[in-house]
């Protein structure tokens, strides 16, 4: 069971798109309490209400418990009362700042790309590879720390994809080849993000670095912890090709996924649907209050999932799959939808922290 004692948390990048989502999701959390907020020098010294009033884009108002907190510079000394640090920092600064907080013995849960491929840092998707936290003792030992560590989330498009791939790999693997085409929401680009003249009535077929991140991250996430606990053995043999597009949707990344299995005969559509529906990752067996009831929700309607209707399924922490059907080139194809700032960012970080608490790492 998780600690019934409240745990104080700090949020770095609190004024940004992901930072705001942390604040919204933590408003009524059972044991995580926001104690401190950090952002750039542009925001530091202002109350959160002053600093974020223009950029706040959530559908609920700024919670009163944080509105009058003074935004702090992102330096560990200012966060002394916190045990957990959630980072929604811009990647230009996240790497160095997060390392400082780790060295100062904080448990850091990052959304940025900087530390994701570090061989001692779990690239943790809470509904997929909670066991990768087994490397934390080794990370601490390697850096001479007794409490501090860094865990990162995956890229938001990678996250939705691996939640659907993991049960298929476990049941029917190995996976041989994946082709994925994304249709990504504008909130993925942060605030103010993509200019309206670029995206309204349009599709932009390029998101810098996104395809490379998706192709690299899948193998680490679907890989295993090495036998000595000293790092990760990436999944070998799987080839992934991603094609990423920005579309005029506010929240929710949609992906068309084409899968080829090594196994012959390949699983049927009915078998794939049954395995997706039955998927119960480790996080759903632990005391993880933010976990959705179902990691994957499969819809039968021929025109779903759709971001406007389905993006908040499972509180935004489920992956919604639809249109599961045979593929005449590979074996099976489907469409999936995941919330890019909830499961794809702040929601995963919060579940990652809840898992770490449940496993006694915090
Ligand atoms: N949006 C999404 O769907 C996803 C985003 N991510 C990643 O999460 C991170 C945050 O993304 P997002 O919220 O969209 O970005 P935003 O641009 O909306 O927010 C960036 C945040 O970083 C702060 N910041 C910028 N420069 C500095 C600095 N020099 N020192 C301290 N703080 C600084 C900003 O503060 P200030 O307001 O004061 O400038 C702001 O709080 C990024 O690394 C992104 O790649 C990951 C998955 C999904
Ligand atoms: N690139 C994602 C969001 C993001 O910031 O990804 P990453 O954390 O991998 O840099 C998007 O635009 O939708």
Structure description:
The protein has helices at residues 17-26, 48-52, 64-67, 91-103, 136-143, 156-172, 196-199, 210-222, 269-278, 307-310, 342-358; strands at residues 7-12, 32-39, 72-73, 84-87, 107-110, 149-152, 175-184, 224-225, 232-233, 239-246, 253-261, 296-298, 319-326, 332-338. It is an alpha/beta fold and 362 residues long. The protein folds into 2 domains: 7-155 and 345-358, Rossmann fold; 156-339, Dihydrodipicolinate Reductase, domain 2. The strands form 3 sheets. A 6-stranded parallel sheet has the order 3-2-1-4-5-6, sandwiched between helices. It has a 6-stranded mixed sheet with strand order 10-7-11-14-13-12. The longest helix is centred in the middle third of the chain and has 17 residues, at 156-172. The radius of gyration is 20 Å and the shape is globular. The mean pLDDT is 97. NADPH dihydro-nicotinamide-adenine-dinucleotide phosphate binds at residues 13-19, 39-40, 42-43, 74, 88-91, 93-94, 111-113, 156, 187-188, 190-191, 340-341, 344-345.
Highlighted features:
11 helices, amino-acid biosynthesis, 2 domains, 362 residues, NAD binding, threonine biosynthesis, Rossmann fold, globular, Dihydrodipicolinate Reductase, domain 2, alpha/beta, binds NADPH dihydro-nicotinamide-adenine-dinucleotide phosphate, binds aspartyl phosphate
């Amino acid at each position: 069971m998780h600690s019934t004692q409240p745990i104080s948390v700090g949020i770095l990048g609190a004024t940004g798109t992901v930072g705001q989502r942390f604040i919204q999701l933590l408003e009524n959390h059972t044991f995580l309490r926001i104690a401190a907020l950090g952002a750039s020098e542009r925001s530091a010294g202002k109350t959160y209400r002053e600093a974020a009033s223009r950029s706040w884009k959530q559908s609920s108002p700024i919670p009163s418990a944080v509105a009058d907190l003074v935004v702090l510079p992102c330096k560990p000394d200012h966060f002394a009362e916190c045990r957990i640090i959630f980072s929604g920092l811009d990647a230009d600064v996240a790497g160095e700042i997060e390392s400082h907080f780790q060295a100062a013995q904080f448990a850091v849960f990052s959304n940025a790309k900087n530390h994701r491929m570090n061989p001692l840092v779990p690239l943790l998707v809470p509904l997929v590879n909670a066991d990768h936290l087994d490397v934390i003792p080794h990370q601490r030992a390697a850096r001479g720390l007794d409490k501090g560590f860094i865990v990162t989330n995956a890229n938001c498009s990678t996250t939705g994809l691996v939640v659907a791939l993991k049960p298929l790999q476990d049941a029917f693997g190995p996976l041989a080849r994946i082709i994925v085409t994304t249709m990504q929401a504008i909130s993925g680009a942060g605030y103010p993000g993509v200019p309206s003249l670029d995206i309204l009535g349009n599709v932009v077929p390029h998101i810098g670095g996104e395809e490379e991140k998706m192709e690299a991250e899948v193998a680490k996430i679907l890989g295993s912890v090495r036998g000595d606990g000293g790092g990760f053995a990436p999944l070998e043999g799987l080839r992934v090709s991603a094609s990423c597009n920005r579309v005029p949707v506010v929240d929710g990344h949609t992906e068309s996924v084409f899968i080829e299995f090594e196994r012959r005969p390949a699983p049927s559509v009915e078998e794939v649907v049954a395995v997706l529906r039955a998927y119960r990752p480790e996080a759903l067996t632990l005391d993880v209050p933010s976990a959705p009831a179902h990691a994957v929700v499969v819809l039968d309607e021929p025109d779903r999932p759709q971001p406007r209707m389905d993006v908040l399924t499972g509180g935004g922490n489920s992956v919604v799959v639809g249109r599961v059907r045979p593929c005449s080139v590979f074996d099976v194809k489907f469409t999936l939808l995941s919330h890019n700032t909830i499961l794809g960012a702040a929601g995963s970080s919060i579940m990652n922290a809840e898992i770490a608490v449940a496993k006694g790492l915090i």
